[in-house]
Amino acid sequence: MIVVFVVAAGAIVFIIAAFVIGREARRLDAKPPQPVFDMDEAVHWVADHLPFEISAVLTYDDVRSIIDWNLEFFRSKGASGNGSGPHPDGSIVVGGAETVEYVLAKAIIAGSDYTPMQVHAVLEAQMAYLVAIGAVGPEAGPDEIQDLGQIGRPDKPDELGS
Predict the structure, then answer these.
(1) Are residues 76 and 117 in the same domain?
(2) How far from each other are the two terminal CA atoms of the chain, in whole angstroms?
């Protein structure tokens, strides 16, 4: 009799576990994986995708500094975050010239002498990296925007500074 109860209890536990695991697998399969920005990976990817005349001059530390300042600029405009802060109303537009000027000003303060061409090349490669990992892409549909909590999106990909 005890054997029957142990077998029945085991079967019930197995059925519940199979149901819960199946439900979670379907839920995770329905959502695409969220892109994750890894700074080390970004620095190497960007440095590897720079034109030769730029990559011959800039070190990995230079590329990291430019990316850091660009991300700082994005945060100051409300275009970057981890999703825990307030979301700005409307679209966020970040222009290429404005971004390059910000990075060059930060570089001057830090004592670095980058040219606008070098900064622009790094920023273009960084935007290509963001597209490659899926952090930047086509405008989200209405159902995706609700899931994202109404995050502002630029109207055109060109407005991202590329």
Answers:
(1) yes
(2) 73
Q: Are residues 6 and 49 in the same domain?
A: no
Cα(128)–Cα(120) distance, integer angstroms = 12
**Within 36-140, where are the H helices?**
39-48, 52-55, 60-77, 96-110, 116-133
**pLDDT tens column, 21-61:** 988 888 877 776 677 788 999 999 999 999 999 999 999 99
Query: Do 141 and 63 belong together in one domain?
Result: yes
Give the domain range for residue 21: 1-31
- Report the alpha-carbon distance of residue 104 to residue 66 in Å, rounded: 9
Measured between alpha carbons, how far is 89 from 157 in angstroms, rounded to an integer?
Answer: 19
Whole-number Å distance between alpha carbons of 143 and 93? 22
Quote the pTM value.
0.61
